[in-house]
Amino acid sequence: MPNRHRGEIEAEIGGRRRVLVLTLGALAELEAAFGASDLVALTERFGAGRLSARDLVRIIGAGLRGAGESISDDEVAAMPIGGGAAGYVRVAAELIAATFADAHETQA
Question: How many structural domains are present in the chain?
């Protein structure tokens, strides 16, 4: 069961339920991958709403690795998610929202 207070979500990826979380290490990985100088720049990039398929793979992969899975972005790219492209967007958006939600939002 995912812990929303820690920013965890659960999604069916590759035919099984998996937990994802953007830990500090996962966020640092994304900063490097996106060339973001800090978390503000990273959130601005996410907030712009212009994520490529490769961006979605990186976000989901970082979330899986943050939850302890040993998985490459290439492996993530080959995994099906229900709903096709919209499913990848939904999982990444839910993960980002869980990571950056205000404390009062996670209490609901």
Answer: 1
Instruction: Tell me whether residue 92 is in a domain.
Output: yes
Question: What's the N-to-C CA distance of the chain in angstroms?
Answer: 17
Strand bridging mode 9-13 / 16-20? antiparallel
State the sign of the Cα–Cα–Cα–Cα dihedral 102, 31, 42, 65: negative
Give per-residue pLDDT as tens, 75-99. 999 999 999 899 999 999 999 999 9
pLDDT tens per residue across span 51-73: 899 999 999 999 999 999 999 99
Domain that holds residue 77: 4-103
Report CA Rg, the chain: 13
